[in-house]
Amino acid sequence: MFDVRVIPELSSMILTLLAVLILFWGLSKLLYKPVSKILNERKEKIQNDIDGAKVLKEEAATLKSEYESKLLDARKETQEIIESGRKRGEEIKEDIIAEAKKEAENIVEKAKREIQAEREKALLDVKMQAGEMAVLIASKIIEKDVDLASQQDLIEKFVDEVGTREWQN
User: Fold this and answer.
1) Whole-structure pTM value
2) Residue numbers of the domain that contains 125
3) Which residues form a coiled coil (predicted)?
């Protein structure tokens, strides 16, 4: 039968230990260094990606800040344009009102002149008609024929006297 021992033989232990050391050395040369190299490369790539992301984040923050600044400037400029337009509109409104008032005053003045001219014309017509009537009445009273030239002289004299104190007395 088999002989079972609790403690292995020394030669077997040394051979096992030697095999493990050779295996460890072989694996470290063949497997550990390449895996370490791959892991280090991966680590460096991840670190570069993180650094690149930080740079991009900073650039994005800078661009955001610039955008917000430009947006604020655009809003201010828009407000200035609106305010300028409002002021210009008020100026135009005031100019139009002033022009309309001036035109209205001119129309009123023209109307006053026309009324005065019509009044003077009407007064002259009334004077002429009154003179003609006075001559007719006077000729009826005198019962004499007045020729056209003397009638005209009488009318002109009467017209000149109409409205004066002599005529009213």
Assistant:
1) 0.41
2) 10-168
3) 57-121
